[in-house]
């Protein structure tokens, strides 16, 4: 507690500071003011920048921050910066008790002589208190009170500064100050200032550089060396002279330093996903997925807004699952084949089974909000309103993990029906005669698609599919009329629920209605892939099969470390687990997964281990290209508006598509049928290069017949 006698003198001296104390105020009035002021600094963690890296832990994807700041301990700083700040702001820092009454008296005299406020009297401790009050404010009123130019605010600083000096060492106060002070150019703290102005670590600052930065704190805009060299140079040289007067440096050192010009090496710190490296603009789509993932995790806060705030202030080091080499290969591979019709989005997502970690997200687009030079929109209505198309620049999450509905995925959905049937107890030998056209039990609106009377009547892509099929040949040849009968046998609601168990969500009102408990058992067309989905969802769904029935939520992270270097943990079912740990559970049995995999081998030309695939398949070129075990499923929608391939090995799964995201009624065309097959095969082959060859485990005899 500050003594009343001292307080009276302080209040009198404060009359010369930013706002005058009303006439007649004395020790008793000052004491009354003091009683209504804060007595403690709130326990407040200063916001720090979060750094997000690729899987190598070195390639910076971007940073997230409100105020760009990274904490550095005092012991790691070059002594020049500490000495320069003392010389610039508070020469008696290590001798006063938080308040420098000599400075207050000197300021009082100077300001009375000038007739205005020409000198302040804030010590570094008082400045720290002011910043702490400002940054811990939870209301607008608190923020104003922390910075307003009044005697009351100054008294608050004095009271808390004296108390702080009794609780912290001088070095702790200096460390806190240097990590909190604002240096201009969005640089909060000495680390950010060193990076932004000189592109180096604080420990590497020279005497001249340290003096330049120390001179900024008083008035960052007025002394900004990037904008006003003259004032910045004068301020820097003032700091250098004061360092010599305080015997931090010699007169000779001061003269040499003052003769040097200001040499900046400015850098602009990246911020959010729009600032991924210019040479890797494609990383923006993965970054966007990461950001959306973070905002969905309860470990980081009670709601998306709180979680985003934590990302921007938590000071984490996040190592993501993005494989920069696979990403680079995937982009080059896609772009080598997508030069004909740029309206068509052509993308690929690679996922790791058993963890759900996403290794690459590639699409023939540039992640950028600048769409001024984009081509015309392919949607006739949007084009009539001069709405630009999504090529080549877009930030739309075309690959998933965001808020777009996606695309119909055609026959790739047959996997959900087959797994549901196996899960219900059916055998791989389950057979049906599959005519070219089949009248199903499902009712459709009169005149609706593929309708005969009031029944849904799907047909096959080729007359050569007509005949008796089981799950092996039905899946390998993608026989629609076989799978509609299989869906009828197990129930379309079971297929829908299985898709949900494997990670699909419903993106449109129409799909949500059809998938609802009231309607799912009537959704006959589901098995032919009429619902909208994304490559991320499909790659991860098939990764569940590759992981022998273990579903893992898609994840973009390998590790999340706190500023103290510890793994960030959260509580799950009463246990502490790493927030970056895979979130997995069993979706169906190991044997069901192995049986589904065996049928999916038929598609790629690899042939099944326990069944007969027939004499041809829809993706027979894949195994010949891959030259190692691979399974998967092709898919096309009506009129080939979209073409898909989802493939997997025991180690990796990938999904590729080609479609027009602006106008889904546009056709991708039969000529582009093989493009998704090539993208998946090439990416998996590259990722597994030089890795030991692993084969799939065959299913048991119990599930075959």
TrEMBL record:
Lineage: superkingdom: Bacteria
Catalyzed chemical reaction(s): [GlcNAc-(1->4)-Mur2Ac(oyl-L-Ala-gamma-D-Glu-L-Lys-D-Ala-D-Ala)](n)-di-trans,octa-cis-undecaprenyl diphosphate + beta-D-GlcNAc-(1->4)-Mur2Ac(oyl-L-Ala-gamma-D-Glu-L-Lys-D-Ala-D-Ala)-di-trans,octa-cis-undecaprenyl diphosphate = [GlcNAc-(1->4)-Mur2Ac(oyl-L-Ala-gamma-D-Glu-L-Lys-D-Ala-D-Ala)](n+1)-di-trans,octa-cis-undecaprenyl diphosphate + di-trans,octa-cis-undecaprenyl diphosphate + H(+); Preferential cleavage: (Ac)2-L-Lys-D-Ala-|-D-Ala. Also transpeptidation of peptidyl-alanyl moieties that are N-acyl substituents of D-alanine
One Gene Ontology biological process: regulation of cell shape
Keyword tags: Carboxypeptidase, Cell shape, Cell wall biogenesis/degradation, Glycosyltransferase, Hydrolase, Multifunctional enzyme, Peptidoglycan synthesis, Protease, Transferase
Domain (Penicillin-binding protein transpeptidase) ranges: 349-662
Gene Ontology, cellular component aspect: outer membrane-bounded periplasmic space
Entry keyword Thylakoid: no
Cross-referenced InterPro entries: Beta-lactam/transpept-like (IPR012338), Glyco_trans_51 (IPR001264), Glycosyltr_51/Transpeptidase (IPR050396), Lysozyme-like_dom_sf (IPR023346), PBP_transglycosylase (IPR036950), PCN-bd_Tpept (IPR001460)
Residue ranges annotated for the Glycosyl transferase family domain, each copy included: 61-243
GO MF, one annotated term: peptidoglycan glycosyltransferase activity
Any one Pfam family match given in the protein's UniProt record, by short name: Transgly
Family of the protein in this entry: In the N-terminal section; belongs to the glycosyltransferase 51 family. In the C-terminal section; belongs to the transpeptidase family.
Protein name stated in the entry: Carboxypeptidase
Taxonomy of the source species: Bacteria, Bacillati, Actinomycetota, Actinomycetes, Micromonosporales
């Amino acid at each position: 507690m500050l003594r009343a006698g001292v307080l009276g003198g302080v209040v009198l001296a404060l009359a010369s500071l930013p706002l005058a104390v009303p006439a007649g105020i004395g020790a008793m009035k000052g004491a009354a003011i003091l009683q209504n002021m804060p007595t403690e600094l709130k326990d407040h963690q200063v916001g720090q920048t979060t750094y997000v890296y690729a899987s190598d832990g070195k390639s910076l994807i971007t940073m997230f921050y409100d105020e760009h700041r990274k904490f550095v301990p005092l012991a790691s700083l070059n002594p020049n910066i500490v000495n320069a700040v003392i010389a610039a702001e508070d020469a008696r820092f290590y001798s006063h008790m938080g308040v420098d009454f000599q400075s207050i008296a000197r300021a009082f005299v100077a300001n009375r002589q000038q007739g205005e406020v020409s000198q302040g009297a804030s010590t570094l401790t008082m400045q720290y208190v002011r910043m702490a009050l400002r940054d811990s404010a939870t209301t607008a009123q608190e923020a104003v009170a922390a910075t307003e130019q009044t005697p009351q605010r100054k008294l608050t600083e004095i009271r808390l500064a004296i108390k702080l000096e009794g609780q912290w060492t001088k070095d702790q106060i200096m460390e806190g100050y240097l990590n909190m002070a604002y240096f201009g150019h969005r640089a909060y703290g000495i680390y950010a200032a060193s990076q932004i102005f000189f592109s180096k670590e604080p420990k590497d600052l020279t005497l001249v550089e340290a003096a330049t930065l120390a001179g900024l704190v008083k008035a960052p805009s007025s002394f900004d060396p990037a904008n006003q060299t003259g004032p910045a140079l004068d301020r820097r040289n003032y700091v250098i002279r004061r360092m010599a007067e305080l015997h931090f440096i010699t007169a000779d050192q001061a003269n040499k330093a003052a003769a040097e010009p200001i040499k900046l090496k400015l850098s602009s710190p990246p911020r959010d996903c729009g600032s991924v490296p210019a040479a890797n603009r494609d990383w923006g789509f993965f970054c966007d997925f990461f950001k959306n993932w973070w905002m969905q995790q309860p470990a980081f806060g009670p709601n998306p807004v709180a979680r985003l705030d934590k990302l921007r202030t938590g000071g984490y080091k996040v190592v993501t699952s993005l494989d920069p080499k696979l990403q680079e290969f995937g982009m080059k591979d896609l772009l080598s084949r997508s030069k004909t019709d740029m309206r068509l989005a052509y993308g690929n997502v690679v996922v790791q089974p058993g963890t759900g970690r996403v290794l690459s997200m590639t699409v023939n687009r540039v992640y950028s909000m600048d769409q001024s030079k984009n081509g015309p929109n392919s949607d006739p209505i949007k084009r009539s309103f001069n709405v630009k198309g999504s090529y080549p620049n877009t930030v739309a999450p075309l690959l998933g993990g965001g808020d777009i509905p996606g695309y119909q995925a055609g026959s790739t959905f047959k996997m959900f029906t087959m797994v549901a049937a196996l899960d219900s107890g059916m055998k791989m030998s389950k057979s049906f005669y599959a005519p070219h056209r089949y009248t199903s039990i499902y009712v459709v609106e009169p005149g609706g698609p593929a309708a005969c009377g009031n029944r849904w009547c799907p047909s096959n892509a080729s007359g050569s599919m007509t005949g008796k099929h089981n799950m092996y040949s039905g899946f390998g040849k993608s026989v629609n009329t076989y799978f509609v009968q299989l869906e009828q046998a197990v129930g379309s609601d079971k297929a829908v629920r299985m898709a949900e168990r494997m990670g699909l969500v419903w993106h449109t009102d129409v799909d949500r209605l059809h998938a609802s408990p009231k309607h799912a058992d009537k959704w006959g067309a589901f098995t032919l892939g009429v619902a909208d989905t994304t490559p991320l969802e499909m790659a991860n769904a098939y990764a569940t099969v590759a992981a022998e029935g273990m579903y893992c939520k898609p994840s973009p992270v390998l590790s999340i470390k706190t500023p103290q270097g510890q793994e960030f943990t959260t509580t799950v079912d009463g246990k502490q687990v790493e927030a970056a740990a895979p979130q997995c559970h069993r979706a169906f049995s190991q044997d069901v997964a192995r049986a589904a995999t065996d049928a999916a081998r038929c598609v790629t030309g690899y042939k099944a281990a326990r069944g007969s695939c027939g004499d041809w398949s829809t993706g027979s070129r894949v195994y010949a290209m891959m030259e190692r075990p691979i399974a998967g499923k092709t898919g096309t929608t009506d009129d080939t508006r979209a073409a898909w391939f989802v493939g997997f090995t025991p180690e990796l799964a990938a999904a590729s598509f080609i479609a027009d995201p602006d106008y889904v009624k546009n056709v991708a065309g039969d000529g582009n049928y093989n493009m998704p097959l090539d993208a998946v095969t090439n990416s998996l082959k590259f990722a597994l290069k030089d890795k030991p060859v692993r084969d799939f485990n065959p299913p048991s005899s119990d599930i075959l017949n």
